[in-house]
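dumping these here so i dont lose them again. two proteins, back to back, each one seq then structure tokens. dont judge the mess
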Amino acid sequence: MKPKMMSAKTWARGAANWVLMLLLAAMAQSPAAASEFEFHAPAAALGSTTPATIRDLAERLLPVYQEPDPDRYLANLSALQMVTGNYAAADVSRQSLRDRRRRSDAGRPVSRAVIYDIYAYAKALQAGNRVSFADAFGRAFHEVVGRLNDHDAYAVTRWLQSSPAAYQEALQKALDQQRTNDRIGQTAAVDLIWQYVSFDAYRSFGPLVDALVAEDDGRRYTAPEEVLVKSRGGAGISAVVIRPRGAAKRLPTLLEFTLYDSQNYAKECAAHGYVGVVAYARGKHGSSGAVVPYQHDGDDARAVINWIAKQAWSDGRVGMYGDGYSGFTPWAAAKHLPPALKAIATSAPTAPGVDVPMGGGIFQNSAYRWSSYVTNTKESDKAGYYDDDLWHALDQKWYKSGRRYRDMGTLHGKPNPIFIRWLNHPSYDRYWQNMVPFREQFAHIDIPILTVTGYYAGSELGALYYFTQHHKYDARADHTLLIGPYDDSVMQRGPLATLQAYTVDPVALVDVHELRYQWFDHVFKGAAKPALLAGRVNFEVMGANEWRHAASIDAMAGGVLKYYLNAAAGDEQRLTLKKPQRLAFVRQWVNLADRTDASWMPSTDLISKSLATHNDRMFVSEPILKTTEFNGSFSLRLDFTVNKMDVDLNVILYERRADGDYIRLFSPTDEVRASYARDRVHRHLLRAGERQELVIRGERMTSRQLQPGSRLVMVLGVNKRPDREINYGTGNDVSEESIADARPPLKIRWYNDSYLEIPVRR
């Protein structure tokens, strides 16, 4: 017979006064208490001596630990108590913390702190009742998770199912950083102890979680239902349906249409009170046919939407969402105007023909790599997609060979007909126009739309294309943009406090994933619209730590600064606010046949101490005199002569702070093929040897508060790199050009009445 378990609440009855006395004592301790401890970090997170070493540190810290903030004190106290093995006391401390925060946390979503509530409770039950940890954790899980609503339970179970390896890696990193020191301060010691507690907790309950979650899911949601929907033409589209149990008979549905046969969000949608459906593109997850990226998705998604609207559990309304490829498919579906499609929310949406497989009209090797992966049916070959060395070697092989860009498959030894098909359509012609709404078709999309992207997202180009085109053809479009200092992964893993060494403003650390559901609740359930989405354009001003809201991208700024491209001696040219009185020019010369630079690749760092130029010219302004916000997209008018009929250019802008650091204002670099700068549908070749004008309108945007003493830096370059198509300037099909077309070298004169315009608010 199992011993009768004693609830941790029993411990709490006699311990509440003790916790209060301990809390008061800690807050009253003299600052003279020990602030540093001798500590020799163990070599490995899994080392045999690590538990004892961390426990010894906690035992020495516990009697002298002090912290003026009561909530932080109780949380950290519980970690110290867990490491020293006093789980009953740790459980009481966490209960006291919950009691203190009950009023302030009322109505808020559950936090990750509940993980340690469950763990401390389970360990207290294990110790107090002398039962296995598996039994104790099962009871703690059921008591805590069982009383949560579906939304909070989903969040908690997702956190519980995190990989223990991630916490082991974090602990190992912390130990490695500490190893060079033989002493550790209180703050660092507490942080290290938390790293150990997290690792120890996840490796303890990790093997138990999946079965417990499956049991909990069974009482909350219907079992995943696999269906096959017939599309026009007879293709069978595989879909998975998950519904919340005990909900109203008919519910709105949230649909993701994806190319990837991986984890999906159907259960998450059900946890938020929707029917969750995930449908798969042809050739994936049981869908019939071969994988042909982009071409059939709009028609197939429409078929799934129409099928959903006819089901007994559907209230006839469908919202589509997605990131990356599944951010493209809602637009592909919207082109067909299915009546049941009532809302779209996307992040990092691709726009085929605009930002993939080319950007600014320039094809990218990453598109060859990706298309090889998604169209390959051999699992052994798919593994190569993640081998960066393999693809880097292919880039180098092609670049050094000087062969045509369309010979990439020959050099790789594996034909790629999809990539060749794309190369056959370098203009934004009917092939691409048939995939998503084009021009006036945007005016017919009269449903609410939310687009989320970032200043440092590769997909920003596609996201802004959809947003600007929609508002261009329908000035009253109900299309909302949220943009901040984010990269492409913000919707999947949340904003990072530090993004590539750049410290993100605290106000930008928003749960955009949950914000998407709040927006859907506003559309489908009549909930209040999230305050963060108050304007059509909602943007975080980097450096100001502030969100702003505007009616349009143009309304983000109140004026324009015009900088002329002025010649100067040395490597740095000048950006001047005053138009030069005498005509002059800056020379640029690029040997397109040179391959000695095969190992060079541009830096992608967001913060740099210096800039290494290559095939480009750097233009630097005078110091900014007063605080100025750069809000929006740049425009560059170039007055120049060139000896070729075409050229591929790139533009990147930086703030060079007074301390010398360069901060990228957007990333990746804005790239453009000159012959498509005016019109991506029709190619307009340059006039070799003649003076002419070219206007480049930035297809990325930013918002940053430029500080007095900072300078604006523009780097204007020519694209010539191993991971891009090379434009040799003959005026012919660029994918057919080779190094044989490289002569003579490219020669450009940038005249000093060229100018850069940036939208500003002062």
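---- next one ----
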Amino acid sequence: MDFTPTSTAHRRLAQLARQRFVDGLCAGLPTLDKRVYEFLTEIMGQTATQREMQQRRDAWMGYQAHRKAWAELVTRAWREGLAPQPVSSAMPLDGGLELVGEDVVENRLLASRMALTVAEHVGVPFDAARQRTQHLEGRELPSRDILRTETLCQRLVDPWLEVGLKREDMQLVLDPLQRQLAELALVQYQALHQLYDQQGVATAEELRARVRRPVTAGSSRSGALGPDSGGARLGRETPFPATMMAPPGGTGPMARPGFGGFASPLAYARQRAQGVMVQLRRLLTQPVTGYDMVQAPPASPALVHALADERVAADLYYSGMATLVEDYSPQAVVQVARVVRERAAEFKKKAGTDSEKAIIEVVALMFQSILSEDRIPPAVRVWFARLQVPVLRVALAEPEFFSDLTHPARQLIDRMGSCVLGFDASAIDGSALETEIRRIVQVIEQYPETGKRVFELVFGEFEKFLAKFLTERQATSRIVSVAQQVEQRETLAIQYTIELRTMLKDMPVREEIREFLFKSWAEVLALSAVRDGPQHADTAGYKRAAADLVWAASAKPNRADRSRVIQQLPALLQSLRQGLVLIGVTGAPQDAQIKQLTDTLAEAFLSKTASIPQEHIDAMARRLANLEDFISDETLGDLPLSADNIELLLGIDASAIHVVADNGAPVLDEMLAWAQQLPLGAWFTVDHNGASARVQYVWHSRRKQLHLFGALDGSSYLLQLKRLGLYLQSGLLVAQEEESLTLRATREALTKLDANPERLFQ
């Protein structure tokens, strides 16, 4: 990169700017500290699970004790960042891997996530500050310069751990912390520009003016963004290059050049995805393009008219008035790809601004990439091609399409693409999945509104369709039914145990009776409720038996109560035996439990202690009768899962599926979060018991404690949540696609534009 030679005065001015920048940050640190403290105080008073409330109390107490020390260390760290920094990056000079501790790596991941949010807020002011500072110093801004958001955040995160605060507590306050930091940094970047303006430093626009739009096909330009336009290549400006891949053979914890240690695949994928979107935004907001990423201007009249013509053509197509030739051969894909290119060329002729031409070109290149994906069956690619115009309308009207990876238009294409990547053409042609994709494309093309609303609607519809389609095979449907009931049964067992503990908390009930009710009878109630319903006569009888057992096991000081116990005992014991049979406790184990209960009842029969009032027993019986009205998921723990549970519940041979239950091994919280975010329909490779299989994610239970994957050969894998997290963490379950379809299409489009920037405006 070329820079104007600078004088000592210029370099001193740049350093003065840094000094004032840090002074302003340090002055605003008390406001940031106050926001964090207020947030912790606020959430501490909110209702949550007992574990969450305890974590929030501990976080509040810890921050209250260490907040002063943390603020002091942050101030010191920011001021130490003013020391001159080398231009070289963090990567070792020998090009090897930088091996650092796991805590350091986790800190860097946390700081990088924070930096992404801050960068979103201060992107334009920072980019201009970077260019003006580089101009003064005649060199690239050092990779660890205090002006960079990555450095700013890293020097905020490290002191948090140094003073004894927990990393999970910072994750708890991450949202308000990074938002407050972004606002603080924005003010200081703006103050820095005021200083530069007062000293007559060239503005970013003036520095970018050297970038000129090519006027001929033969003219050359150094990249799509020019020499000083913000760094077209990701390796220079983003935490991780968008094209960086895992090392060969590395399916487990991944070593990253210049990063070291363990980097979670989820965090790494997010970093890489954000890097691609940052590069795209820079491409579209360069001065020669002039695209407004905040509020898009109305499209040019000629372009609006051309898009309207396409809408009319679509109506004719679906009404049957146009010639309809359904050709889904590979040759048809080549033809529609040519149509995409020609259509883009015609639209660019109608465009009235360079920004419109740039958007048209980017969208066209994205669809060319999608259409060249051979793993998508030709029939689906033909229908995908028809989405070019609707997506272009959205892109022209909604800048967030180029910055938000969760934009519904992107999500829809990604989800449809990921579902069909695992099928060959013969499996897709004429299937319900192809029919649904055709229907969705037609709805989009003919929907009255042209914004993201239609994509939101059909994406929701496709999600519902997918949940049904992926489980409609008879074998899969049966497994899903069993898994649902397993989770329901275990959920109810936990809930019933909690409620029984609550009801008996203040009652003088013997420990033997408590243990029986909590460990055995809660299972009986749960299984009966799942099999027959919570209000079924058998379930109601088991609930009444629980209340009768508590009463029978209490002291009986008067003759009437003792006579009543003797009269009711045979029926009670018979009900208890029936319940134990229901959960598979028979023979000697059942006799042992019944004997312990009868011995306890005999002791209570002769006890002279206080009895349980009858009104308490009646209240317990009423609450048990309507127990389902009082229980919730908020206090549930983990579900036990085993092949025995499945066989017991419905009598299905568990050898027909691979049941992978939790085994108590530690798993990262981030892996659990990732496991709960997996999209239905995505394809993976699973390595289970030494055998590898290609599987599709087809179902998860309501609480996402159970997850089902199906292979093409009909076998299935039922994984419990923590074990699924472990499989992801260890590389035993690997996604076949490291990036989504539209993200890969965006990256490939940027690669072509970097090599041939002239096409952007031609």
